[in-house]
Amino acid sequence: MSSPLAKLARIAAGAFAAAAIAATGANAAPAAPTPNSKLQTPNSAPAAALVIPTPAQVEWADAEIGVMFHFDMPVFHPRYNFRRWGTHPPASSFAPTALDTDQWLAASAKMGAKYAVLVAKHCSGFSLWPTAAHEYSVKNSPYKNGKGDIVAEFVASCKKYGIKPGIYASSSANGFLHVDDPGRVKPSSPVTQKRYTEIVEQQLTELWTNYGELFEIWFDGGVLAKSKGGPDAAGLLRKLQPNAIVFQGPAEFTNLIRWVGNENGVAPDPCWATARETTNANGTTEIKGLHGAPLEARWCPGEADFPLRLIRGVDGWFWRADQRDRVLDLDKLLQRYEWSVGRNANMLLGIVVDPRGLVPDADVKRMAEFGAAVKRLYGSPLPAKTITGDSAGNALTLELTAPASVDRLVLQEEIALGERVLEYVIKGKTAAGEWRELARGTNIGHKRIVRFAPVTLNAVRLEITKSKAPPVLRTFSAFAVESTAK
């Protein structure tokens, strides 16, 4: 590790205009790197020792916000426990009366979600598509007289609203077939371990073949290794969905992401994109300390999942009649955004679907409020006159066009060239001309939202005090103080 002795930034063609800075707003995805559109070092090529993400992992990081829809037997049978083997509700009881995936995805678009994950098969084993692997699916339900395919409808709605589709299909648990973490059949199971593995491979093949290219694939609880009797998930992924991002997938696969250790939407701080390995947790037990590390050899960033109905002591992933309109307050939801996306992770928000087959009105309303609030708070950075680097190459100074009360910055590295920054300090220039330290930290990565006490400033300075290689920044923006309660 070395200090960034090379010049941190040069302003190509004489200027990095305030308009260009504003155009890379906190949620925008800037164009591909060019000398005129990035904050660069003289040599922006990745150092040999740096770990570099795949293009798919860069695209996933740029998406930032996703949603996950849960719709399974617990919606119709709230007391159902899949571990009470042999007590699974009949397929005939899965009976939505007004299911509309367009409604789900329209709400997601207003929220600002760029990708969506459908739980196609949760722990009950009931499948939302007409699988040929067994009879416990929509083909034996009243929905569209057994002719429905909710996975197909979901993917079509994603395309309609410009949202990238993903699929969750648990291989680690299956109440119908008496299977529990990590994908082991119980003595009471009607199938052998070998037969269960065949069923999993058949269902994954159906899901990964029949519905087009998937943006993200979710393994809740990980996936039992092939060497231990599990499915050949890595082989199927390489063959059928080589470009998909995979949450807690097989270690042999490339495009992996990991859990952040809780289902509260809070990424650890710091949260490095590089880690020793992915996770294989089922989310029921919080795991602290999943920070990753700056010198690990695998690019495996974190995804912070949590339900919109985040209620202490209650599983908020599925609709429950006794929850009614109990959704997260907007301020708390925005806080989760800053504690996930603003800590170099992606935010994945769990959305319930009620017995009608619709997202409840209260949830739709809060989703729209959240999308509007993020645009209001992070869509328009303060305009700047100049952005300059110091002679030593260790700092960038953002001079504002006018004094402003500031309480947030957004920093982004060009992660296609690796995570390079290891330590930084933020300073602000007051009206008296004094440079005051506002914050300091370690990881920046894809996005770092830096919060500090409101202060009126003429300029903001970013000092990189330690890095793995000459830093390459994508965004350096300041934001005016504004209430989140609007």
Task: Write a brief structural summary.
The protein is of the alpha/beta class. It has two domains: 12-49 and 381-480, Jelly Rolls; 64-378, Glycosidases (TIM Barrel, Alpha-Beta Barrel).
Description:
A hairpin with a 5-residue loop joins strand 13 and strand 14. The protein has 2 domains: 12-49 and 381-480, Galactose-binding domain-like (Jelly Rolls); 64-378, Glycosidases (TIM Barrel). It is an alpha/beta fold and 486 residues long. It contains 9 helices and 18 strands.
Structural class: alpha/beta
Q: What is the name of the CATH architecture of the largest domain?
A: Alpha-Beta Barrel
What distance separates the N and C termini? 45 Å
Q: Give the total of domains.
A: 2
Topology:
Elements: H1 18-23, H2 55-63, E1 65-70, H3 73-76, H4 101-111, E2 115-121, H5 150-160, E3 164-169, E4 179-180, E5 184-185, H6 193-209, E6 216-218, H7 233-240, E7 245-247, E8 256-259, E9 274-275, E10 298-299, E11 302-307, H8 330-340, E12 346-352, H9 361-378, E13 384-389, E14 395-413, E15 421-429, E16 435-441, E17 448-467, E18 473-480
Parallel strand pairs: 1-2, 1-12, 2-3, 3-6, 6-7, 7-8, 8-11, 11-12
Antiparallel strand pairs: 4-5, 9-10, 13-14, 14-17, 14-18, 15-16, 15-17
Helix pairs in contact: 4-5, 4-9, 6-7
